[in-house]
């Protein structure tokens, strides 16, 4: 799966030089993040205008429409994570009201699908990591802060400054004992 500054999203197969599907043509907002769900049957694309779109991967048309698309953040959606069987999605980004990390239910109509919005990261959340074993979300912000959320209780557990500049990467070890952060500096 490839995404570009011009907003195009294309899917390729290892053994074929031509694209299999063009999910999104050029001329849209820049792609900020893309993932497949754990089952591999859906892909999601976040963009610079705050939207998240989700497609079924097994498409037969060359230019399919997303089965879900909604604006998660008022300025930008920088990252997201599929939670559980991909009916629950977490997003990070920047919103005018500082609700910069959100939980969404994709099975509910788009007007009511926001489950919870965390007010955090004054200038926006840049990255997000889901820890399924502990049911935690870890987010990094533009000012170097890390927030850890318990998604069951829907509360912030910890906040601390890890860097002097924006957190650009988060990685979680498979046993969920440690996580690593990387920053712009």
TrEMBL record:
The UniProt entry, under SMART domains, shows: WD40
Give the keywords, sorted.
Answer: WD repeat
The record's GO CC annotations read:
RAVE complex
Residue ranges of WD repeats? 118-159, 160-185
Superkingdom field: Eukaryota
| Annotated Pfam families | WD40
- What are the GO BP annotations of this UniProt entry? vacuolar acidification
Reply yes or no: does the keyword Calcium apply: no
InterPro entries recorded: DmX-like/RAVE_component, WD40/YVTN_repeat-like_dom_sf, WD40_repeat_dom_sf, WD40_rpt
| Protein name according to UniProt | DMXL2 protein
Q: From which source organism is this entry? A: Corythaixoides concolor (Grey go-away-bird)
**What broad taxonomic lineage does this protein's source fall under?**
Eukaryota, Metazoa, Chordata, Craniata, Vertebrata
């Amino acid at each position: 799966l490839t995404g570009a500054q011009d907003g195009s999203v294309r899917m390729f197969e290892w053994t074929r030089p031509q694209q299999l599907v063009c999910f999104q043509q050029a001329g849209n907002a820049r792609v900020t993040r893309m993932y497949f769900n754990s089952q591999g049957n859906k892909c999601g694309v976040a963009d610079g205008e705050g939207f998240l779109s989700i497609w079924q991967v097994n498409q037969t048309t060359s230019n399919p429409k997303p089965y879900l698309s909604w604006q998660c953040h008022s300025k930008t959606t920088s990252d997201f994570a599929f939670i559980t069987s991909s009916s629950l999605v977490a997003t990070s980004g920047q919103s005018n009201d500082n609700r910069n990390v959100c939980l969404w239910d994709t099975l509910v109509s788009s007007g009511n699908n926001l489950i919870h919005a965390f007010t955090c990261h004054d200038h926006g959340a840049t990255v997000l990591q889901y820890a399924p074993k502990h049911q935690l979300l870890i987010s990094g912000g533009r000012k170097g802060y890390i927030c850890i959320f318990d998604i069951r209780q829907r509360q912030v557990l910890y906040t601390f400054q890890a860097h002097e500049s924006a957190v650009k990467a988060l990685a979680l070890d498979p046993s969920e004992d440690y996580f690593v952060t990387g920053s712009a500096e």
